[in-house]
Structure formats: structure tokens, C-alpha cells
Design brief:
The protein is an all-alpha fold. Helices cover 69% and strands 1% of the residues. The protein is built from 20 helices and 2 strands. Strands 1-2 form a two-stranded parallel sheet. Helix 7 crosses helix 10 and helix 19 runs antiparallel to helix 20. The longest helix has 27 residues. It comes from Noviherbaspirillum aridicola.
Length: 424
Amino acid sequence: MQDAVHQAVAGVWRIESARIVAALARMVRDIGLAEELAQDALVAALESWPVDGIPDNRGAWLMTTAKNRALDRFRRDKSLADKLAQIGQDLEAQEALVVPDFSDSLDEHRSDGVADDLLRLIFTACHPLLSQEARVALTLKLLGGLSTEEIARAFLIPEATVAQRIVRAKKTLAQARVPFEVPRGPALQERLEAVLEVVYLIFNEGYTATSGDAWMRPALMDEALRLGRMLAELAPGEPEAHGLAALMELQASRAAARTGADGRPVLLADQDRSRWDRLLIRRGMTALRRAEALGRPSGPYALQAAIAACHAQAPSAAQTDWARIASLYAALGAITASPIVELNRAVAVSMAEGPEAALAIVDALRAERALQRYQWLPSVRGDLLARLGRHEEAREEFLRAAALTANDREKALLLERAQQAARR
């Protein structure tokens, strides 16, 4: 019975914790206090449910309990009497016994609904006052429902480091009195970019782990997908929110084919496309169409999603529209000026026009400071040299790439390619 209760509590917490913290943060205007009150409700569930039984609407029970704890806190704290008066006018808070609406239908026009609370929370967690590392940790904690231990394990860093980042982040937001709101006007676009960046960073760490012995970290990919879908629903008028959702869905569709039975990485050209997830591809294409239907120029995520769509729609690597991919990368490079984008364009050019044309692009990138420690620069160059029959030079490039990576699976793949070049 105890195990069943713990599983029930853990399950509903992962699903509903973000909504509960968001609703509390709107009430108390303090993310740290909101999380503390939500945790109080979690403890109450662990104490009450084994005795009284698991409620039919678990999320509503947690929300009601958390809001009652917030009201109790205000009543006890005389210094917050003014806030209590304000909350006394809040019909939702006063009617704590009413079952909250946990419908998945999110109406962008509601001014104080669940959707707006979550949107406020994600924009606050990704505030520019915080470092990128702090934004990632706080976002995963508040919106992903991950524990400090889970975040530390996912990024292979000490739990104390993660805990410290989260504590400092909440303190920074409190000291700066950052308003719990969605920014308006130009500030919205500026902050949206930071939010999308954090979600995609989480996804990328799951898609290809920076270090360790795993090629991918599926739990992080899943959390990023969940956050991306949530953001697209919460901001339906923002094409880049749909673009990011599309990009992640399409890339995640390849996950099952990205490793072999032995766990070793399988590169895109060698993947069994019958193992690609057709449901994720359909979801990705739908999100991309939504982004394009808004009628605005494509941003970085929508352009990358369009590139991923070219791969998803091609029966094989050879039948891929590489010329279109190269042109999409050129458009992406025009708005990002990123040497990594130019490197990716070179790969597409190599498939559309041949390795010699691509090698000229790659050689021009060797002086780029941003790519000096980027393992995929020598890796791509090694591949081009191998295709041109310059096998010894290719071997040296693959060895150089292997020395730059901290991921064990990636290193093994690059060393294997170096050995293959040496045998030719």
C-alpha cells in the first residue's frame, strides 16, 4: 500500500507540480515560497493518502492543499497582511474547496487561468538576470518536476552544485523583485528567445550527451519535448514556439535508430529509417505548418525544423533534397551568422555538389575561434577527406576530433573511423 501511494504521489507530482507552483507563485509573488508551499502539499499527500486513501482527482487535491497552506501562511504572517487582503479578493483562492480546472484546453485569452500562470512561471525561470546554467536548473526543477538529484545525474555534475544554482537563482529573482508576469512588447520577444534557448539546450543535452558513457539521455529529451509542447500551446501566436516544438519532435523521431543493439552511435546516413517514429514526425510536421501559417518570416527554429522535415520526408539519405537543405542552412546562416550553421551547410553541400566543394567551406572555418574545440569540425573534415581518397589526412582529423570529445560513445565512434581510414 505504501509503495502504491508513493508511486501515485510521484506520478501526479511530475505531471502537476508546474501548475501548482505557477498558481502559488501568482498568489505569493515569490517562486521560492511557492515551491516551498507546493512541497508542503506533497508532504501532506504522503502523510494523508496512506490513511484516507488516494483521492479520485489527485492533482486537484494537491492544488487545493497547497492553496490552503498559502492562505494559512498569510494569516500567520502579519507582515503580509496587505497581501492577505489582496488574496481575499481572489475568488479562486477563497473557493479552495472547488475542484480546480485541470483541462488540457488552454485558452490564450484567459487573463488569470492555468495557461497564463505557467507562461509567467517559465518566463520568470528563464529571466535574463540568471546565468544560462541557473535557468536550465530552475526550469527543470519548476517546470520539468525533476528533483535536484535527477538534474545533477542528467548533467553529470554534483548535486550540491545544482542545489546551489537553484537556491541562488531563486534568491536573485526575489532580491531583484522580478515581477511574476509575461513581458510585453519588445521585451516579450527578447525573453521568448531566452526561454526557447533554454528548452532547446535541455533537448540537445538529451539528444547528444556532452559527456559520459551514454550517447543520449532520453529523460532530458522527454522533458524538453514536454516543455516545448507546453510553450507552443501557451504562446500559440509565436511562430518560433511552434518552430522549436517541430524541430524537437522531428529530431526526437530518430532516437530509436540513433544507436545500434550494442548502444553504439549510428550516424544519420546509416540509420534504419523504418525505426523512425512516425507519430513524432506527424506531430513535428503539424507544428511546422502552424509556424508557417502565421505568415511571418521563418526564424532559426522554424528553419531548422524545415531542414529536419527534409530528412523526415526522404526515404533514404541518397534521396534527400540536399540542395534545399543547403539553401535552408544558407538562410539560417544569414540570420544567425553562426560558424556551426556554416559547417552544417558544408555537409549539405558535400551531398548536393560533392566533397571538394564542401572542403573549401570547411577549410575556411578552421580559423574560427568558436570552432577550435568543436569536435565536429575535424570530424566533418575527416569525412570529406576520406571521400576524396586522402585517407591519412582523414585519419588525423578523426583522431583530433576524438581528442576533443568528452562523450565515451562519441570518442569510440571517431576512433573507429580513424582506424577505418588507416586501413584504406
